[in-house]
């Protein structure tokens, strides 16, 4: 690994900005992708942040693989048949299992009133989800601007309900920014910033072709509802 250390000589970690970077961290964890990891997004990271972030990786993957939004994606299906099942059987994702166990059956109804059937719905651990997407947002900002998200900024994430994904996506497409694609459409994303503050940003991230999260970064004193960059979304 001496080569990597040399590569990052003098570069600070993209996440903490304090410790020297010693490794290239995958902003979107490798475990989401199966065989094809084309066009990955990596940022320089210190060992401690890399380790802290990787503690979230299993939770993110298992949360996405249990989401109906991505259930048609071939790579999601392969992972469900393989690693994910083994991980559940091995008890590695106990935190997620506990959260799923506390779910309930709910009718899935579109905004237009179309009944889609029953689904087991559950509430992911908010602290974990915020933690994961805070790392991801910081990685994306660093990659975009070559600068860290300032210390007084927060990242927030919401799962966009399936009935609203088209509307949100179109809003971001209207900005003229090109979406990025990682792997075989495992992650498709698009970002936009406030014209007068590039660190006030919004990112639409679609996992496995159907599970959409909206991630926003804002100065921590601002309420998310009043921020122009963020289309208002209600948590499902
Ligand atoms: Zn760090």
Task: Characterise this structure.
There is one protein chain. By secondary structure, the protein is of the alpha+beta class. The chain has one domain. 33% of the residues lie in helices and 25% in strands. It is built from six helices and nine strands. Strand 7 and strand 8 form a beta hairpin. It binds zinc ion (ZN). Zinc ion (ZN) binds next to helix 2.
Instruction: Give, in spatial order, the strands making up the sheet with the most strands.
Output: 5-9-8-7-6
Strand content: 25-35%
Q: Hetero groups bound?
A: zinc ion
Oligomer: single chain
Number of strands: 9
Low-confidence runs: 224-236
Rg value: 18 Å
Number of structurally distinct domains: 1
> Whole-number average pLDDT?
81
Per DSSP, the total helix count is 6
The outline comes out as: globular
What's the story with the biggest beta sheet? Answer: 5 strands, antiparallel
Q: How far from one another are the termini?
A: 44 Å
- The residue fraction in helices comes out at 25-40%
Global structural class: alpha+beta
User: What is the helix/strand order?
Assistant: HEEHHHEEHEHEEEE
Main traits of this protein?
single chain; 236 residues; alpha+beta; 5-stranded antiparallel beta sheet; two-stranded antiparallel sheet; 6 helices; 25% strand; disordered C terminus; binds zinc ion
Give the topology.
Blueprint: H1 2-7, E1 23-26, E2 42-45, H2 47-65, H3 74-89, H4 94-101, E3 104-109, E4 115-121, H5 126-145, E5 153-159, H6 165-173, E6 180-182, E7 187-194, E8 197-207, E9 211-219
Antiparallel strand pairs: 1-2, 3-4, 5-9, 6-7, 7-8, 8-9
Bound molecules: zinc ion (ZN).
